[in-house]
Specification:
Layout (H helix, E strand, L loop, with lengths): L6 H4 L37 H8 L4 H14 L1 H8 L4 H14 L3 H14 L4 H13 L3 H14 L4 H13 L3 H14 L4 H13 L3 H13 L5 H13 L3 H14 L4 H15 L9 H12 L6 H14 L3 H14 L4 H10 L9 H11 L3 H8 L4 H10 L8 E6 L7 H4 L3 E8 L2 H9 L5 E4 L2 H6 L5 E6 L10 H10 E12 L9 E3 L5 E3 L1 H8 L3 E14 L2 E12 L1
Parallel strand pairs: 1-2, 1-4, 2-3, 4-5
Antiparallel strand pairs: 5-9, 6-7, 8-9
Length: 557
């Protein structure tokens, strides 16, 4: 049985109160036994006893002894009990006093006593949930609020609270369901729509989030936060004009917020760029940005780079070229800008230049894992290695090469297959990150095709996750891979795809990456390879839209 202390005992003024202490009990009402059935999206806790066990609730007899002890220890509780409101109600009020005094643990214990004594009161369960959440007991808070909602499912605030608990626990589907139930009950409440919008935002459903933030504003939420959130989501779906309007409203309501000032200035700058890429006055636009952003202003090159990326990513290619010309004049030695401007000008080269890849990925090294995995939803290494695992009968036997290994995301996934694992990449800072993982036997700074071409049938497995997207003409790569692999060896690759009906074998995209026609890749592999796996997938998010691709595994003839 759980030992319960009085508030005084918790402060070190007395011994532990246990079930064996024979204290004078307070007269209590009989305890209920079974919890009511709960409808989705509630969890099925079964009996109330099962939920009580999860929350470590005392039984009725023990609770009576504890309340009697507390009554003698604290005159305020005695006074509440003497008013005749009943032990559960008195404990509820006592818990409120404890929370106001910052005694969160005492408040939670008092409410556990209260629900043990009166388990059919949904309000008590809700108050217990709030106290447990305040005590950083989120799992228990979720149990308590779900029991309360099972007793009374009409409590809108309870559903919102449950949604927030589920979201904090990473249960995005559960949070969406809870907020959805709140919206069914109170479709005109702006806070419900704001919560639903946050749920969609977390799930990276930015267009839906923008609609929901707009709905919250239309229902009366005129807070700077609501407008800023609306602006952020509109910006993330490429609705720059709508984002500008929303950030302007946020700025009018809260003019000293740094993020709002910066975003308002950035969007105003982008609005000054001619849509047709014609003459543009960057100096005036930058001066206006600094006037708006004030102390929150970014460095001009960083700002222009951001505007260039946004305009290009969301298809405003003429405007992107106008910004790119200004950037290139400021940074004439940038291999990245030279290459991207060539692609935006219509170039379709055989492959990305080495100096671009080194500059781009070295600059990206520190944030690569977070940006690619957490922001862009990159899961290619896991999916390719899962496909490889279904094709390789024996583990730990493969001479393995990880082409374009980057920071080594695939390294831990390849290690179980490999007796020897080599990582190959052009960018030295990426190789440093890969080396820190401690999973590679060798790391080599080299261009992938050249490195493969120097091998002579001594590899069993070659992985090229997000490598082909930086090569246009894949014929040299497939020829080199065929020469480097032993018969029966596997070549596992990912591609970003374009529709075969366009008639292009490959095409350089505004992002600087290449997309390939699947039929063209299959034709290149024919003869030297047998296709053994072909899986459509989303490679990553590009401008917050899915970039369609395929995961392909070929076996060497």
């Amino acid at each position: 049985m759980t030992a319960w202390k009085t508030p005084a005992e918790r402060a070190g003024k007395g011994g532990v109160l246990t079930e064996q202490n024979q204290r004078e009990p307070v007269a209590l009402a009989p305890r209920g036994h079974e919890s009511p059935s709960t409808a989705a999206p509630l969890r099925a806790w079964g009996s109330l006893a099962a939920a009580a066990s999860r929350l470590a609730l005392p039984d009725t007899e023990h609770a009576g002894r504890v309340v009697g002890d507390w009554r003698r220890a604290d005159p305020r509780l005695a006074e509440l009990l003497n008013t005749g409101v009943g032990a559960a109600a008195a404990l509820d009020r006592y818990a409120l006093m404890a929370r106001q005094e910052g005694r969160i643990a005492d408040a939670a214990m008092a409410l556990k006593m209260a629900v043990a004594l009166s388990p059919d009161e949904p309000g008590l369960w809700g108050n217990l949930a709030a106290a447990l959440a305040a005590a950083d007991e989120a799992a228990g808070a979720a149990v308590a609020i779900e029991i309360g909602l099972g007793l009374d499912g009409s409590r809108v605030d309870g559903w919102i609270f449950l949604g927030s608990l589920r979201m904090a626990a990473g249960d995005d589907d559960g949070a969406e369901a809870a907020y959805g139930r709140a919206a069914e009950l109170a479709p005109r409440r702006p806070d419900v729509w704001h919560a639903l919008a946050l749920s969609a935002y977390r799930r990276r459903q930015f267009a839906i989030a923008a609609e929901r933030f707009q709905a919250s504003i239309e229902r009366g939420d005129r807070s700077p936060l609501a407008y800023a959130h609306l602006g952020q989501t509109r910006h993330l779906i490429g609705d720059f004009a709508g984002a500008l309007d929303a950030f302007a409203a946020a700025h009018a309501a809260q003019p000293d917020d740094d993020h709002t000032r910066h975003m308002l200035g950035l969007l105003r700058l982008m609005e000054t760029v001619p849509a047709d890429g014609g003459d543009w006055n960057p100096d005036g636009a930058l001066a206006a940005y600094r006037a708006t952003a004030g102390s929150a202003a970014w460095d001009a090159n960083r700002l222009l780079q951001t505007a260039f990326g946004l305009l290009s990513g969301y298809g405003r290619l003429d405007a992107a070229r106008a910004v790119g010309r200004v950037l290139l004049a400021r940074k004439p030695d940038s291999a990245t800008l030279r290459y991207l401007m060539a692609v935006l000008g219509g170039a379709n080269p055989d492959r990305c230049p080495d100096d671009y890849l080194i500059e781009h990925f070295d600059a990206f090294a520190e944030t690569f894992d977070t940006q690619l995995v957490e922001v862009l939803g990159y899961r290619v290494p896991e999916r390719l290695c899962r496909a490889i695992g279904a094709l390789i009968p024996a583990m730990g036997q493969c001479a393995t090469a990880d082409l374009g290994c980057g920071t080594g995301l695939a390294g831990p996934l390849l290690r179980p297959f490999a007796r020897h694992l080599t990582g190959i990449d052009l960018a030295p800072r990426m190789l440093e990150k890969a080396g820190a993982r401690g999973v590679y036997d060798d790391l080599v700074q080299a261009e992938a095709v050249s490195w493969l071409a120097a091998r002579r049938a001594d590899l069993d497995l070659v992985l090229a996750a997000d490598v082909l997207i930086y090569i246009g003409d894949l014929a040299p790569l497939f020829a080199a891979a065929a020469g480097a692999l032993r018969p029966g060896g596997l070549f596992a690759v990912s591609i970003e795809t374009i529709a075969d009906r366009r008639g292009d074998d490959y095409r350089a995209l505004p992002s600087g990456r290449f997309a390939h026609a699947p039929s063209h890749v299959a034709a290149l592999a024919a003869g030297d390879f047998i296709p053994v796996h072909d899986e459509p997938t989303v490679i990553r998010l590009e401008a917050n839209r899915p970039a369609e691709g395929r995961l392909l595994v070929f076996k060497r003839n």
